[in-house]
Amino acid sequence: MSKIELTVDGAAVSDDVEPRMLLVQYLREKLGKTGTVIGCDTSNCGACTVHLDGTSVKSCNVLAVQANGRTVTTIEGLAATAEGDLHPVQESFRECHGLQCGFCTPGMIMQAVDLLGENPNPTEEEVRLGMEGNLCRCTGYHNIVKSVLHAAEGAKS
Amino acid sequence: MTATQDRPTAEIGKDRRRKEDQRLITGRTRWTDNITLPGMLHLAMVRSPFAHATITSVDLEAAKASPNVVTVLSGKDFGDELGVCINAWPITPDQKTPTHSPMPADRVAFAGEVVAVVVARSAAEARDAAELVDVDYDEQPAVIGIKKALEDTVLAHPELGTNKSALWVFDSAEAGTGSDVEAAIETARADGILIEREYRQQRLIPAFMEPRSVVVDPTGEQLTMWSATQIPHILRFALAATTGVPESKIRVIAPDVGGGFGGKLQTTPEEWIAWAVARRLGKPVKYTETRSESLMAAHHGRDQVQTLTLAADKDGNVTGFKVHLDADLGAYIAVVGGGVPVLGAFMFNAIYKFPSYRFECQTVLTNTTFTDAYRGAGRPEATYAIERIMDELAAEVGVDPLEIRERNWIKHEEFPFTTVAGLEYDTGNYEAATAKAKESFGYDALRAEQKERRDRGDRVQLGIGVSTFTEMCGLAPSRVLGSLDYGAGGWEHASVRMLATGKVEIVTGVSGHGQGHETAFSQIVADRLGVPFEDVEVLHGDTQIAHRGLDTYGSRSLVVGGEALVRAVDKVIDKAKHLAAHLLEASEEDLDYADGRFAVRGTDQGVAIQELATAAFAAHNYPEDMEPSIDAEATYDPVNFNYPHGTHLCAMEVDTETGAVKMRKYTCCDDIGTIINPLIVAGQVHGGLVQGIAQALWEEAVYDEAGTLVSGSFVDYLLPTSADTISFDVVHTDEPSICTTNTLGTKGVGEAGTIASTPAVVNAVVDAIRHLGIDDIQMPCTPERVWRAIQGSKAGGATETPPDAMPHFAEGALNQDEGAGQ
Lengths: 157, 822
Known about the structure:
The structure holds 2 protein chains of 2 kinds.
Chain A: E1 2-8, E2 11-17, H1 23-30, E3 49-52, E4 55-58, E5 71-73, H2 88-95, H3 105-118, H4 124-130, H5 142-156
Parallel strand pairs in A: 1-5
Antiparallel strand pairs in A: 1-2, 3-4, 3-5
Helix pairs in contact in A: 2-5, 3-5
Chain B: H1 21-26, E1 41-47, E2 53-59, H2 61-64, E3 69-74, E4 107-108, E5 114-120, H3 123-130, E6 134-139, H4 146-151, E7 164-171, H5 172-175, H6 181-191, E8 193-204, E9 213-217, E10 223-227, H7 232-243, E11 250-253, H8 269-281, E12 285-288, H9 291-297, E13 301-312, E14 318-328, H10 339-344, E15 357-364, H11 379-397, H12 401-408, E16 417-418, E17 424-425, H13 430-441, H14 443-456, E18 460-470, H15 478-483, E19 492-498, E20 504-508, H16 517-530, E21 536-539, H17 557-584, E22 591-594, E23 597-600, E24 606-608, H18 609-618, E25 632-636, E26 645-655, E27 661-671, H19 678-697, E28 729-732, H20 752-769, H21 783-792
Parallel strand pairs in B: 1-12, 10-11, 14-15, 20-21, 27-28
Antiparallel strand pairs in B: 1-5, 2-4, 2-6, 3-5, 7-15, 8-13, 9-10, 9-12, 13-14, 16-17, 18-26, 19-20, 19-25, 22-23, 23-24, 26-27
Helix pairs in contact in B: 11-12, 11-20, 16-17, 17-18, 19-20
């Protein structure tokens, strides 16, 4: 077992974990952060995307011990990083119907926030390429792309 | 005519943002895998690596000794309490149906079948121990693929003596719905056009984003199962029917469910195993599959070979259509099983007036994962066949594909129309949908561009694909299901609870998993009952709350479940009216109901529905002849299917040198009757389109000769991404064809995009290169397949590759630029 100390959604946490434990398993099983979900076992789907020190990562592709001393933000803590009750990207996904079953949504939103952080004014093509690592089976991506563009538009005004 | 039909429709038609989104965008979700109970144990499945093998021995000792393992069980450790996986639709009386144990003790019939289960204190420990279970197999020859199965030389289940499970036939001459197709074929052969084709519907995997998960809690008086399922009610019935637990002791809950697309329309071995283990140990258990397990062991879809014969006169007027399907059921006959291709039987004639029609479906068993419903279930396959072959007919006659369709389709003034397959289409307007789609697509301009590029010999050719589809949905009139030997009905149930505080709870037997039921049903109730949208709470997916229901599939939730809801609401209003008259000391005939309020005509007296709910709750003053309640429920059995339709147009660019295909534009005009929420409808269409497009271009479940699924991860099974797809042009007819068989006039939309889009895309790819002598590309139309087709065609590429393309590789020449390396 290895001892880790990190900040998750603004709270300091400390645990002994198996070295093989994935960050997503740590979030779900130890912290009860079940807003972050597991959709595959090959790091293709991106459903488990969170921010590690402000950058999006697939949390199935990071060991919990690698998060030691770092800051993790999940979908459950995202709103706290913005003014208002929801993060503007969350609002935008609701406004543009960017979700149906909602299973990919936490990962989509976390990825979209990171994408817009890097490129606040993306083209549709840039959104499509930037969201490529996150799979959705419900929306056909049409409204996800629209949501991200809408959030970018909102940030400008 | 009910008293409620004149009410305003402020909510219906409004693009309300969804109620369910708040929890989904904040991570406040209750997926089955999120549920943790005190003392809960975790399961890991041990699965067969072989497609067909007898189990000679199973050694569980090492696994049992692994840390924190509670027990390990194999098939022989269970008795009848394990139950059996059911087939609810034996399509013929003599169907050959192999027994489907959730965990066979003696023989496995597909790679991925469960042979043992490990129970441990954590999921990781269970999985570790599963590696230690030592199973000896005696590998048997496996039959993979439809054509091999039909040979009957290697048998999927030797005890059945054949791989052929059932032959289901519909013939219009025998049914009295049309003439003899063989006569039409002979006439066409002599003096007309006869088109014979074989199309392959490749095997697909539904690939919902939430892997399947099940939690069973055997503590308390009722045993509770949470499952990531589309069908909690059917699941409960099947558990009771096969495991010896009374139905009244079983509660099934489908909490938040992350997509299904038919893939969670199943009663699964994993659910049955979890049920048996929890009962045996008396402890809550959870099993959540990995994605690889999901792709390997959750049911697959499609997988047909279609042999088609289309007869027409010289002008392209179709005289007959003969369809023979061979459909791969996989190793077992799943819940709907052979019923999936049979659902297609009524749709091969599509929107057309064919005088004669014959449909045969031979189902076969193979040593592969069992197949069942996948979005559209039988109807995408049928639509693909007819819409592809209508394009072939157009090419033969030498007219535009839309022109050949118009010659054959049912005209809008001919509705209601009884088809050659025996269905009565109530309404439709194919002319209007096509005109609108053409306009929005810019059909004529794209045709002009196509011609220009073709004349110019452009390397990148443009193709335009057409699909004018209809479907039968809203499953289903119970008597029709009975006549087809389906094991259940197709009705739906709803109830309305008027709470003391004036809020409204509605309970529906349909079980949403992403469709937006909570929003759309709230809109319906808000309009009909005259209460605020925000005051309506929609409860579903729990058999103790929604005690009657038949769940969600076949585009039925709105058209069947919504109608049940409308009827329940109308009963509430009727009851409330009686109470209102009593309280207002007025005659019921003098009361008008509008905006949630009964008013005494000609006075300023009135009472709101919420006040009546409170009055019924207090029950201090109510008529002698009524109970103190205005709650109501209704069960609705549909009188017909409904028939959404639309015209889909797709422009594809094909690089004739590389075979790469690229979607340029996609327009669809769907006529789905009354639209409750246009935002939700658009979402259903977008998602449906991409699933259909994915069949055309990317997805295929591939087995090797030994029966190993080689596309068993998301690395290998090609789900489209945002970078592979485009934004769509979704329009509707200006005057929709209102459905006449439900009160709101709605038609289903959940499957439409998937049903329509596949042939539109393939037609476009073929259209781009038809001038090269190509009339088919097998799905998925990968660059390799397109490239090979072009290379194999007589005309070759758009421009012939010059022999001296790479002169520096010519014999005797340097293979590098002069001066290189200096």
